[in-house]
Every structure is written in structure tokens, then in C-alpha cells.
Protein 1
Amino acid sequence: MFKELDPLFLSELRLAVMSILISVEEADFVYLKEKTNATSGNLSVQIDKLQQAGYIDIRKTFKGKRPQTICKITFQGIGAFEKYIEALKSYINL
Amino acid sequence: METKQDRQLNEKESLELIARMIQNTKQKMEEGRGTMFLIWGYATVIVTMIVWGTVLYTQNFTWQFLWFLLPISGSIATLIYKKQEDKKPRVTTYIDRIIGYVWTVSGITGFLLSMVSIFVYTFPILFIIILIMGIGTTLTGLIINFRPLVISGAISLLCSVLLSFLNWKLQLPLFSLIFIFMMIIPGHYLNYKAGKAHV
């Protein structure tokens, strides 16, 4: 039987961000932008959605005089990501 | 990779994207890791040879205070390197954090023991420094799964025993040689491998 897929992971960009954050401790906005080739506006919108869902924590600091946004996956985000992978497996018979 | 908009993926594409992103991050983790070995390796070798040369030439052991050049030069070079790294997009991995702990503990232990050996009472500090740095190097190699570091660290641990059988005139050149073998050669090799992975 097919398991329900978390709609938050159906977006390519949100899934890319979560895939990066699951394998690192934390990453800044510029790193995520570089790795996903997303535009700043789109990335900003998508990480806000992930934060609102409780999947990532966002910390705003300064690097010298420049503002820096640091993203980190939460326990809830790790759980949701693992659940999503399990659901994907049921679709492609892994 | 094409610019990502808010596109929806099918199941197969999703798995491919996850695998690709995780692989991308894994490659990034190895970049520049050898640089800290190079900074502290070269600083140790150069300062050791300066101390050895001046004490041998002047026969005055007061020049041993030149050892303080080691934490000073190493720390300055580390700060400059970290400042340059700060300009790049920042990512921290679990491995980075663990390696950071290993070297913070090793560095503080080495520094405190050196201070005791200079100001309180004498003991075979070079032997102990090689032991501590050898443990740090071997652990780093095991954590990042880089065999040359494991081998160089482990062999250096064994070589540290040799230091006990030599007088200071031979101890210091051997100490430098061990650092070249333990940190400088693997450091260059690690950076070379990381550079190749990014081509």
C-alpha cells in the first residue's frame, strides 16, 4: 500500500534544502543558494515554509558587518525526512 | 544544475535529488581539511629548527624560550586562515565539530604540559607532544576515513619512543622529521585529494 507523501517535500527546492541539511550540522543561506542554484527570493520563501512547519531552525547573525542566516534541521525535520524516504520506498518498491 | 523553481518531482526524481545533494555536501566536507595540518606542521618544524640552531650555536639554553614562537605563529596563521574561510559560504558538519573537539583537547593538553615542563619541572616533553599529536592525527584519520593520516599518526606514535634514546642535539631534528611525516606530507596529500575531488 502506498504511504502518503509529505506535501512539503514535493517541492524540488524544499527537498534539496532538507537533503543538504540532513547531512550537515548547519549551513548558511549563501551555501544553500550555491548548492541548489536557487534565486534568493525563492530560497527565502521555501526556507520560511520549512521553518513554519518546524522542520528547520533559522538563526540570524552577523559575519563581520554582513548579516548571515544560518539554517539547521530540527529533530522534527529529521523525523519527517525519514518518514518521507520510507513513503518514497513504498512507491518505487524498494 | 538548472535553477530550481518550485517544481514538483516524481518519486524517482526525488530520490535522485536527495542522493545528489548528499553527495555534493560530502565532497565539500573534505575541502581544505589539510590546511590546518600544514599550518601547525610547518610552524612546528620551522620553530624547532630555529630553537635547535640557536641553542646549538650559542650553547645557551635560554634560547629555548623561542618555543613560544610556535603557539604565536601557529595561532596567527590559523586566525588568518579562518578569516579567509569566513568569506566563503559557511557549512558545518558533524565531522568538523568532532575534529574540532579532538584538536582543541589535544592542543590545550600539549600547551599546558609544555608550560609545566618549561616552568615547573623537566620531563620528556618532546616525546609527550609527539604522543598527543600522534593521537590527534590518528583519530582525525579514522574519523574522516583517510588512511594516510591513520598510518602517519600511528607510525609517529611508535617513533616517539625513539626520542627517549637520543640527546637533545639529535632529538630536535628527529622531532621535526616526525612532524614532516605526521602532518606536512599527509596535509599536502589531503589537500591534493580534496582539490581533485572538486575538478
Protein 2
Amino acid sequence: MAQEQATANSPTHDQAPSLLQINGLVQRFGGLTAVDGVDLDIRKGQIYSVIGPNGAGKTTVFNVITGIYKPSAGQILFDGTQVAGMKPDQIVRRGITRTFQNIRLFNNMTVLENVLVGQHTRLPGDVVSALFRLPNYRRAERRAEQRAIELLGFFGQGMIERKDEYAANLSYAERRRVEIARALGSSPKLMLLDEPTAGMNDAETADAVQYIQRLRREFNLTILLIEHKLQVTMGISDRIAVLDYGKKIAEGVPAEIQRNERVIEAYLGRKAAVE
Amino acid sequence: MLTLATVMIPASASPVGIFFQQLEIGITLGAMYALVALGYTLVYGIIELINFAHGDIFMWSTVVTLAVIQAMGITASPGPVKLIGLLILLLAIGMLVSATLNYTIERFFYKPLRKAPRLAPLIAAIGASFILETIAQLWRGSSFVAFPSIFPSVGITFGSVRVNLLDVVIVIVAVVLMYGLERFIRLTRMGKAMRATAQDPEAAALMGVNINRTISMTFIIGGALAGAAGVLYNLYIAQVWFFTGFQLGLIAFTAAVLGGIGNIYGAVLGGFVIGLIEALTIQYVPGGFAWADAVVFAILVLILVFKPSGLLGQQIPNKV
Amino acid sequence: MATQTPSKAASSWTAGIRRGTDGIRRWLNETMLAGRPLIWYVTGWRFAVIALVVAILLPLVPTSAYSDIQSLLVAMISVFVYIMLALGLNIVVGYAGLLDLGYVAFFVIGSYTMAAGTYGSINDFAGKLHDLPTLPFILLIPIGAFIAGIFGILLGAPTLRLRGDYLAIVTLGFGEIVPVVFANIPIFFGQTGISATQPAPITTPVGIISFTDPFNHAPFYYLALAVAVLVTLGCYALRSSSIGRAWVAIREDETAAEASGVNLTRTKLLAFALGAFVGGIGGVINTAAFPSITPLGFSFAISITVLIMVVLGGIGSIPGVIIGALVLRLFDVFLLQRINDPVHQSFLVAPVNAPLHVLANVDFNTLKLLIYGIVLVAMILLRPQGLIPDARRRRELKGVGAAPEGVSAVGAFEQEEAGMSAATTADVLDPSEYTGAGSDAQGREG
């Protein structure tokens, strides 16, 4: 109880219990080591950002956490249980959800159907109730549909009105929103957002920042974020980890990261060289 | 395969003799399978398409060379000199027919689907296969037509193992073609373009490789090899049938997968291995004839399930 | 995949044909029945109502015993069987996006279940006959379906990890092996085949209904119709369930589906098993109607024919698949004979130099397969979404929004390159043009 109290009081949640603990994570592809001994500790209620130059292994870390890759070595403890090596759908069931860098919607399904797929783990999946539309099945479907509309409503009435539109016909910002609504469908505890503001203009970015904070508040979520726009990460993160060449080179609160020499050299220095 | 009945040996031979005789048959069959398997592997290597019509490309060589030999009125073996000329002529015609067909199908059926989802060209290939088969069936009928035995039945006998001159010729022709292919791919400009395209078409295009021409060339080469196999098959099995391509195509595809699809050495190895397995199955499995196809398929399934990269293939990294 | 932009020449011929078919398209759009365009009648619930009414009324057309209507009924029984098969394959290919080229295997299993279950005896490997209890037909429908479904799982379990095109070849192999097994083991009389006992007559308050009366095929017709309707309803129910959504999701994007909590293995296996299940039902009904079966009668051509029905009608579209099966099967078992025989007979006595005498030697059954092949290729190249694309139920009901037709059908197999032909595909029968939304699918890039 005392601990819970501390969670609420600390603005950066760093006294809260761990939700996701990654120890010594290694991911190799043939001869290439994409992630090399990364440790992360994400506390309940945090917005935690992972930054780093292109190819630093950020998305690979996401793919390992969500079970797309099986890690070559290391532990991933979610809420105290080892999830490394589990299948993606099992990990979703435990409460981790994600979005993708290059938005992966089901283009030939409607917005509503997309969000309903997100609730897949919460719906009866047996053939008999689907075939005969048994009462409990119909109730579950109705509830799921209501909830899908509520989730869309998180982004305003405008998204609810788009529910019967095919995902392929949406604007870029709308696609992002649908993807998040879909990710919310599994009632997650932890949401992984892979560059949620990529390709957005300043106004859209500001809007995204605002809803990421609302996500944490309204859905009681912990958020793990990959983000390139430093003004976004510095603004909303409780903690930041910096990856470079698959290794964690720094970790701390935003102010610490901004001052860190290695980060400035490795991350900003190279970025300047590219541009 | 049903048609293998024609190459069965008398049961009077000694067990060891029988074994070696089956090896000899297996190698000869394997040489032909390898030629056809190369076509699958080349095309898959470059555009990741299972060219379902490839077996029928092979079959069309058998059908056309039969028509040629019938038109020439040849029913028995001509003299040795004429025979060599005739063989060269048939090989040229068979290779030309199959190469042209393969090129045409690529140009009109697969090329418009270059950017389509993976299964679209595969369905087009199945359609192409159906079209090729039924035209052959409309033309030559539904039953086997015998190919005249133009090759004299000479050979050497080691104990009870008979090695026909024809078998030697088949293996030599096949090996020469395979060697030629290997040199072509290693040494020529086009060969390098093919390898580059197989690795990374985008990068190859940026480096100035003409992708369309390279793909066309791959189909032409694959077709020509299948055409040559068709002529050899006519000499060896001597039964022309519209459905041969389907059966032999599946066997050759299995060979390509066994060797590691995309790998030309793998296709050759796979061809010989499958040839041997088939010859031994026919001899040693009770009722082996009927089961030969089933055995080949069982092998295919087992490889795909347990080692999809085949004997010589490389594991493809998983891209997300 | 090669990613170079296809040159203008590469796609010009398909574009040319599309321009050429614009005339047909206009004609179809303008063809009106009672003030409605033709397409209006083949989408959504209207299709279901019209099809069902026509199907129910068909046997009631006044007829004498040997008239064409009786042979039409026989043909229609076969049509219903193929509708089941096409719907079953549509679950696998259309919903889940798994190309199954050996679908005939499940048809075989259903057929042999019916035959073995009613024949009364069985052969052992020594050639000795043993009595086998016979089972009633109505019980054999679920039994055949279950056995086929189990084989679907047995085949699917080891192979579903494979990439799509490999899966196609493995299923093809399975489709080839199953008939070979039946031909070469003596239990069901090997190559000779076996004959089922047709369903026994049933006594009802209105009299005895016989399913084997050669002068009245209506009872069996209605039986097959009823089963086909049940299968159709089942397909609709599945498609709109969470299972159906999961199928379409994995077809669209496996990774995103998994990340949404869909268990790939289970979902694919379920598609395979249910597709096989329906194939098994088709086999039982078919053998009940046409009782003599031989293993070698089940060829790859059947697998392909069913696939063509699915592709022709519109991959994933239930009305499309039904119409695809109806058109092809009627053509096959009803029209073809009516072309074949008169043509051959008319040339029996005609002089060899008579015009068109060459037709005397044409085997129309082979010609049919040639046409099938051409249809398959033409559809995939020119109209991959099929004749009646999978128009989703919401749009039919509300008439808002337009589906990305160009990507909806085959594009849906795998979403790597959705841009295939969304912009260029001529929508010959695009229903969205009549639902008030207009066709914005036309101009959009995928």
C-alpha cells in the first residue's frame, strides 16, 4: 500500500514497482548483433523512451519484447513472469501491446473491424458459438463493438464517424489513431509505440503528444516509446534510454540525457553528419 | 512414374546386380531431373516464383520433337553419322521450343504481375500450365504416343549390369549443359547480372542491370535446359504424353527444393538424389511403381517441414 | 521480388484488353432489369433471396419425366456440391489467404466415407471380405466432414509454417497422394472403386419420399440444396465472427495480426480444418447422388476447377463464389454435353471437306479445361478481384464508403505490395457505383 502511495506521488514513477525488466538482452542475426546486452527497467505508469540513431536496434528491441523474434540471450520479465520466447499472441494476452513504425492496418477491413481484431483475445474463439451465434457469443460481440466505438471515441467523435470506412481510405494521422485504438483492444498494461509521430507535421505531433499523455492517464497504461523527434521525447518522457550499435550508452531523466556527452557525440553528432 | 515400366530390368539378375542396375537407372533419370530442376531453381532464385508451368515447358519439347521426327518419317535408327546430326537437330529444336515458350509465358503472364502479391503470379502459372497441357492434349490426344527408337540398343554389360550407350549419352549431354550453365553464370556479364538480380533486384537495377532483360534471359535458359531434357526423355522413356510434364515437373521441383531452391548446385544434386531414390523405390518397395510418386511427395513434405532450406540452401534471414 | 517499375510495354497489353472490355462494362452497367442494373441483383441479401427463390421453384416447373428439367435437376445437384466445395476452398484461400492446391483430397475422403459407410463390406489386405456395419446417410454427413476435417489438421499442422507458395505445392502433393493411396490399398477395392448405397426412402405424413427415383430428382435436389444453404449460412456466420476477422487479418498482415493477439497456428489450422470439413460434406453428398466412385476419378483437375470457381467469382466473396461454381459447373455438366453431342453427331455423316469439320475431332471436355486455364489467367491478370468482388456487408447496407476494389481480392493474399492494380483495374461489375458512393476505387493508387 505504501508503495502504491509513492507511485502516485512521484512525478516520474521511479519508485513504482517494475512492470518490464529486461536483463542482458542479445539479438543476433547470423553474424550481425543487432542488440548487444541491453538492460531496461520500466516502472508502472512511466512513459519511457528509447532513442538512438538509425540502426541502433530500437525496433529490434520492440520486436523481441513482442515475441516477433526469439532473443538469442537475456531475460524479459513482464509483471514478474518471463516472456522471452513466448509467441506474440501469448504476450498480447499477458498485457503487452504495440504499434508499428510503418503503421500496419488491415487495409481491406473497416476501421471498426480493425479495432475488433484488437479485441481478439477477449472474444470467444470457438467455432460452435460462432456458427450458431449462441446468446453469450452475441452478447460478447455486441460488447466488443461497443467497446471498439468507445476506443475510437478516445480520438473524438470524428473517428467514430469513420468506423465503417475501409482502413486503406484513411489519412495518415487517422491510420495512426486506428492502430492505437486496435492496440488498446486487448486491455493492455504496457503499450509499445514505435515512432508514433513519424511523418506528422507540427500540429499533428502536438496532438499526438497530448493523446499519448491521455493514454497513460485514462487507460492506466505504461508506455514504452521509440521516438526520433527529440522535442517530443524530452517533453513527455519520465526516463530515456539511449541505444547505439545495439548497446545502451546512457539512461536517465531527460535533463541528464540532454547533458550526456556520449549521447551528444554518438547521437546528435552523427545525425548532424548525415544531414 | 507409370512410364518407367519401359526401363525395368528382368528379375533374373543377382541382388547385387539389381542394385547396381537400379543405380544406373537412377543416375540416368537423375540427369534429366536435374536439367528440369535447374529451371525451377533459376527462376525461383531470381523472382521467387514457383514456375508451375515449367514441367509443361519440358513436355512441349517432347511433343514437338515427336512431331518433327514423325514429319521426317523416321521410324528406326539411321546410321551413326546421321544419328548424331539428328540428335543435334532435335536438341536444337527442343531447346528452342521450350525456351521460346518459357520466354513468352514470362512476357505475357508473369511480367504484368511483377508487382502483384506473391500468389498472383503463382495462380497465373497454374493457369499457364493448364493451357499448355490441354493444347497438347487437343493436339496429340489423351493417350501415350510412342517415340520411335532412333537410338540403337547398344551397350556394355558388367556382370548383370547393363549400361546402354544411350544412358551414357544422356548423362554426358546433361553434364555438358550443366557445366555450360555454371560457366555462363560465373563468367559472363549476363550471368553476373543474374546473380546480382537474385541477390537484390533493387540494388542491381541501381547498378545498371537491366532487370527485365535479365529475368527474360533466366526464363530462356531455364526453358532451354528443360527442352534438352525433353529430347533426352523422348530417347529414354520413348512415350509422349500431355501429362508427363505435370508429373515430372513435380519430381523436378522436389529435386530443386531438396537441393535448396535458388542454388544451382543444389538442383543438380537434388536431381540425382531423387533419381536414385525413385529407381530404388521402384525396385525395393512392394508395389513400388504405384508408390513412386507418393514417396517423392513424402520426401518433399519432410524436407519442407524439417529443413526448408534444402541440402545446400542458405537460411534466409527473417525480415519484419 | 523484382521491384523495378514495369516498363510501359510490360503492362500495355493488359491495359489494352481492359480498354477493349470497357464496352462490355458499359453494356453490363446499362443492362437493366426492372429499372435496376444487373449487378444490383447479385449483391448482398437480394442475391440470397433471388437465388433461393429460383432454386426452390426450379423443380416445380411442370415437366414430363425425361425432359430437360429432370437432367437440369441432376446437373443442379452437382452444382450444389461444387458450391459447397467452392465455399469450403474459399474459407482457406479467400479468407485465410492460404493457397490449397490439393483440395480434392478432402472431397475424396468425404466420398469414401459415404461409400464405405453404406457399402456393407470391406476388403482386408489378403483380399478377404469382411462385413462392415452400414450407417444411415444422414449420420455419414457429419462423420465424413469430421474425418476430412481431421485430415485437414493432420496436413496443416506440419506445413502451415511454410511460406504461401510452398504450402501450395505441399497441398498439391497431398491431393495427388490421397487418391493414389485409395487406388493402391485393397481395403476399398483399389482401382476398381466402390459403390455407395443411395439414401433410403423416408416415410412422411404426405407419403414416401424416394431419393433414387429416376423420374423424379426433386427430393435429392432439395436435400442437396438444403445442405448447400446450410454451408452458405455457416460461411456467412464464420466470416462475420471473430474467427473470420482473424482469418482476414492474417491474410492482410500476419505480423500485425499476431501483434493483435491472433494465434497464427490455431487460426490457420482452423481455416484448413473447416475448409476440409466442408470438402468432406461435399464428398458425402456427391457420392450419395452419384454413387460409383473410383480413386483415379479424383484428379488435380477438380482442385483446379474449384479454385477457378473461387477466382472467377471473386476471392473471398460468398455470392461471387456461388455464382462462379454455378456458371462453371452448369457449363460443365449441362451445356457442354448439349454442345458436344450434336456437334459430333452432325459431322458423323458430313463429308470430310465440310466447313468446320475439324470440330468433329475436338474433344469438348478437353477444350473445357483449356477454357478454364484461360479464364484463370485472364482473371488474375485483368480482374483479380473477380466478377462479383467481396463487397462488405456494411457498405451494402448503408451505401457509404468504397472498398479498395483493386486490392480487395488477390491483393488481399499478402499485403506486401498492395498497389498492384488498384488504379488501373476496370471495375466491370463494381457494385459501389450503385450504392451512392461512386467508384473512388478507380483513381486511387494503392
